[in-house]
Structures are given as C-alpha cells and as structure tokens.
Amino acid sequence: MNLLDEDVSNNKDTKTKNIIKIIIIFIVLILIAIIGIFSYMMYLEGTILRVYVNNQESADVKNLLKFQEDGTIYVPVRAIASYLGYNSYNGEYSNRSEDKSKCYVESEEEVTNLTLNSNKIYKLNLEENSNNYTYIYMDKPVIAIEGELFITTDGMQKVFNTTFSYDQENNRITIDTVPFLISAYTNAILDYGYTNVSENFENEKAVLKNMLVVTDDKYYGVINTTDGSEILECKYDSIKYQEATGDFIVSSDNKFGIIGTDKRTKVDINYSSIELMDYDAGLYLVSRNNRYGVVDLSGNTVLYAENDQIGVDISKFEENDLKTGYILVDSLIPVLRNNKWGLFDTKGNQVVAFEYDSFGYIASNNREAENLLVIPNYNVIVACLNNRYTLLNASGEQPIRAFVDDIYMTISGGEKHYQMTANDKTYDVEEYLDRLGVQPTTNNQTNTSTNTTSNTTQSNTTQSNTSAVNEVTSNQANSETVEENSEQNSDTQQSSGEEQNSEQQGSEQ
Q1: CA gap 35, 411 in Å, rounded
Q2: What are the structural domain ranges in the chain?
Q3: Residue 452, SS3?
Q4: Residue 466's pLDDT is what?
Q5: Beta-sheet strand order (sheet of 406-412)
Q6: What's the 3-state SS for 395-446?
Q7: Which positions ≥6 away from 212 have C-beta within 8 Å?
Q8: Which of 121, 196, 392, 508 keeps 20 to 30 A from 110, CA to CA?
C-alpha cells in the first residue's frame, strides 16, 4: 500500500507540475499576444493623423484638409475660418455680393480679401482709420474644389495669421493662432526683464516670425522668442511691424524711420511719419513739416517731401472697388502741390504737370450717377479742370483729347457702366474708347506698359481713324460729335491750364 500511495503521489505531483508549466506557457503566450497587440495598436496610433489647433485636438479641422499627390495641403477658406477666430463671407468686403469666386474673412482687427486664381491677398487693418489696403502673396493661387475656395497651408498662415507645422514622423499637425502664441510667451518675457508684449495688432503678428515687440513700460524693442535675445534694443518711443516687408517702423523724439531685422537702418529716423504705399513698387509715403514725399525701401528719395498731399481719398469712390489711393492704374502717383494736381510714375518721373483741379468725378445733380475715379478695364483716370472732365492714361495722355461736362458711373442690375455727357448728349465711355482703338486690359493686374504703348500709338492716329469710322454708322458719328462738342472747350481749358502752369512755374522760379 505504501508503494502504491507513493506512486499515486508522484503521479499527482507530475501532473501538477505539468499543469503549472502549461499555465505558465499560456500566461507567457497571453503576455506576448498583449505586447503584440499593444505594439500593433501603437503602430496604428502612429499612422493616424492628429491635428491640434491651439493645443487642442480637432478632428473637424483634420477632416477639412485636402492632401494632394505632390504633398501640397489645401484648406477650405470659409469652412476653416471659424476654427481660427474669423468670420467668412462671399464677395469682397468693400463690395458686398454673393460672388463665390471671391471671399473675405474678418476678425475684430483685420479683413482679408481673396480671389479665385490669384495668390495676391489684400488686408485692411480695422484698427486704423484708413481705406488703403496692404497686400502680400501666397505661395500658390486660390483654387476651387467642388465650388469652394481653397488655399494652401502657406496661404492659411498668411490669411488667418497662424503658424502651421507638420511632424510627418509622428503624423502630427500643429496650428497655432497669434492670440494663443502671445499668451504662451507672456510669462516668459518677464524673465527677460520686460513688462509686456505690445498690444498693437500689427506688432503681434511678429510672433509668427519668432519675434516679439516688447516694452518696459517706457520704451519698445524687439526680441527673439527662442532665447529672448535682442533684435532691436528697447529704446524706441514706438515700433510698428511691417508684415509685407518684415521691417520695423520705429520712432524716437517724434521722428520716424525704418530698421530691418538685421538691425540695419533702411530709412533714417528723421521723418514726421512713414507709411507703406505699395509693396511691389517698394515705396513709402513720408512727411516732414506737413509736406509729403516718397522714399523707396532703401531710403532713396523718389519724391522730395515738398508736396501738399500724395494720394487720393478713395473713401469718396467706394463703387470703384479701389484698394489704395496712393497708386492709380497700377503705376501713377497722384500729387497735389499749390492746389493743383499732377501725376508721377513709381520711379519719380513726372508724367502730368500740376494743372488739374482734382482727380475723380463727384456726382451732384444726377441721382443715377456714382462718383468715379478710374475706369479699371481701360486703366484711365478721370481728371477735372475748371469743372470739366477728361481721361488720362498711364502715360499721362488724354485718349479722348477733349474735355466734357461729366464722366461718371451708373450701376444697373449689378453691372457697372461708364458714361459721359457733352452738350446734353450722353455717350458710353467704353464704347467710345473702343472706337478710338484704346485697348482694354485683361484684368486690373495687367502690366500697364503694354497698354501704355498701345494707347500712345493709337492716340496718334485717333482722329483719322475716328473720321473714317464715323462715315459708317450713326453711332460712330456720335463719337465724332463728342470731340466736336468739346474741342472748343478743350482748347479753352488747355490754354487756361497752360497759362496757370506758366504762372506757377514762374512763381516757383
């Protein structure tokens, strides 16, 4: 019995050991499976794109992104606006409509206009009392996808004032807005010895380029966000960041100048005011002793500060959809001196003498008439002398070579028409210019040098061409009538202008 009991006990121990081994193996297999599953889940986690806006994950924004085969990422302008602190609308800010080929986005501080197939975006600072837009360029034009306007992530950064980073290794996209970034650096600047970040909206944009405009409660300076190192010393009375150029307008003792991020002085600090006129032309409006001039981005004088006014008040011409009154028809600068207006090109060459009373037509008696400054499709400016009107092209010449009673705009069915009157007769300006052989531009951004050459050539043969054409139809005969009705007045106006100009030149001498 003892031997049998011992054998049974040994068998039980063996079975127990085997069961324990099996359990251990099973547990090990389960652990391996768990580790495998966990590793696979981690792998899957790494392949899932995650998008963070201001440090908050946003599946909605992720779903808006469109990845192209070339690696470009597009975002829908209107759909993403609300996630970045903006409202969005069809049409243009200054010309409200339901035109889906255009849109604008608006925050409390700024409005930005975009147009299909254009990479040029116009910005209006709502904190400043100005109707003049600034502009910058995106890397690629606005495109349409299923009827919606899309821009690249570079465009998104410029339109909505954000940063965008794509960590492809971790499959993570980070989007941060200016207010979020400013708040993130607010405490850090205290450690650098400053009291606050400038609250000026334009200055806050500097954070997108890893810079902060800071103050010690008395003076202003610029520091690097990464280490607090000085870019501009904290010694200026004011600083204003220029988004388009990346420079800073600084002031000291009520004098203004321009300094770059490399600390190089581009415009000496000796002007009463400085304002960017046009980025492409590289021009700044400057003033000294209530006189105005123009300098370029290197500080070279284009127009001496000896003029009463530079630029036209475009608030009077809202229906013209103008973005600036400083440069008209792409290349001409309106200048007022001694109560007479003239025109200069962007190189500083005078193309029209100081002989006109004003630029633009202000409607008065005609209820249907709208104020008119330029006819955009033909790149011509309305000019006034002794209460009569003519047109000037980009060369400063008169395509119609005459003065008429009125040149104005009417709007019918949402379409704009341009008309002129002479001796109680009304004419369509665009039809008339067509008969004279003036070539219309393809769009408002067309290079005016081509049109100028064409207009100049055509103007030399206008009279003979018009006379020949006038023999064909009665409508064309009307164009001859305009010149006949206004030639006598034109000669009188021009003689008067020449006399005034001679007197002015004599007084200047």
Answers
A1: 73
A2: 60-160, 325-509
A3: helix
A4: 34
A5: 406-412, 415-422, 425-428
A6: CCCCCCCCCECEEEEEEECCEEEEEEEECCEEEEHHHHHHHCCCCCCCCCCC
A7: 185, 189, 197, 198, 206, 222, 223, 225
A8: 196
CA distance 310 to 19: 98
- pTM attached to this predicted model: 0.79
**CA gap 9, 333 in Å, rounded:** 111
Contacts of 266 (CB under 8 A, 6+ apart): 247, 257, 258, 259, 260, 297, 298, 299
Mean pLDDT by 10 residues, the chain (509 residues): 55 71 80 72 68 97 95 97 97 89 97 98 93 96 97 98 96 97 91 93 97 96 95 97 97 97 95 96 96 95 97 93 94 97 97 97 87 94 97 94 94 90 93 91 44 35 33 37 49 43 40
Q: Which helix (H) or strand (E) holds 313?
A: none
What CATH class is the domain 60-160?
A: alpha beta
Task: Take residue 263 and report the two structure tokens written for it.
Answer: 């600390």
pLDDT at 124: 96
CA 465/CA 468 separation, integer angstroms: 5
Strands 388-392 and 415-422: unpaired
Q: How many CA atoms lie within 13 A of 475 on its CB side?
A: 7
Q: 349: which residues sit within 8 A by CB, 6+ positions away?
A: none
- The amino acid that residue 28 corresponds to is V
Instruction: Supply φ then ψ for residue 403, to 5 degrees.
Output: -110, 140
Question: Which residues pair with residue 121 across a beta bridge?
Answer: 136
Distance CA 51, CA 153 (A): 13
In contact, 360 and 351? CB cutoff 8 Å: no
Count CB-CB contacts under 10 A for residue 417.
Answer: 15
CA–CA dist 479, 490 (Å, integer): 15
Instruction: Spell out the residues 6+ positions from residue 256 whose beta carbon is closer than 8 angstroms to its own.
Output: 249, 250, 269, 271, 272, 273, 274, 286
